[in-house]
Write a structure and sequence with these properties.
It is a single chain. By secondary structure, the protein is mainly beta. The strands form four sheets. Strands 2-4-12-11-7-8 form a six-stranded mixed beta sheet, with no helix packed on it. The longest helix is centred in the last third of the chain and has 15 residues. It is elongated, with a radius of gyration of 23 Å. It comes from Saguinus oedipus.
Length: 153
């Protein structure tokens, strides 16, 4: 097929709260938690063969990103990776650009907080078992405080 390149796309939304890795075709929306490996596929066809170039928020991606046969691999994603990733396929007859939005989700309230140890001195400690580094929400602190006050009586 001589002419402008073609790109295989998908128009789905992938929501990931627990898998260690996700793979989608360009054109999809990805909503995932931090620490996941994300692969975005950009399969192109065209004669002459199309050259694939990747962009993030309209800026060309450099060498630190892993590229393999048109696919982009983002390892251990964090909030700094959030953005719009675009795949441009170009040859002598033209070019075509398709995009995927990557959104990094916060874990749900209560997720990743670990367990709570209650001591007889009336204090509460959080055991770090997950990636949760935020303090307990105010509502949870109020519940713990009221429980400890009742326990002391």
């Amino acid at each position: 097929m001589v002419g402008k390149p073609l790109v295989k796309t998908s128009r789905m939304t992938m929501v990931n709260m627990e898998k260690p890795a996700v793979t989608v075709d360009i054109g999809s929306t990805i909503k995932t938690v931090q620490g996941v490996n994300v692969t975005i596929n950009c399969q192109v066809a065209g004669v002459p063969e199309a050259e694939v170039t990747w962009f993030r928020n309209k800026s060309k991606l450099g060498s630190p990103h892993r590229l393999h046969e048109g696919s982009l691999l983002l390892t251990n994603v964090s909030s700094s990776d959030q953005g719009v990733y675009s795949c441009r396929a170009a040859n002598l007859h033209g070019e075509l650009t398709e995009s995927t939005q990557l959104l990094i989700l916060e874990k749900e309230v209560g997720a990743g907080l670990g367990s709570v140890n209650c001591s007889s001195s009336g204090g509460a400690e959080r055991e770090a078992k997950g990636s949760g580094s935020a303090a307990f929400p105010r509502e949870v602190q109020q519940v713990f405080t009221s429980l400890f006050v009742q326990q002391k009586r």
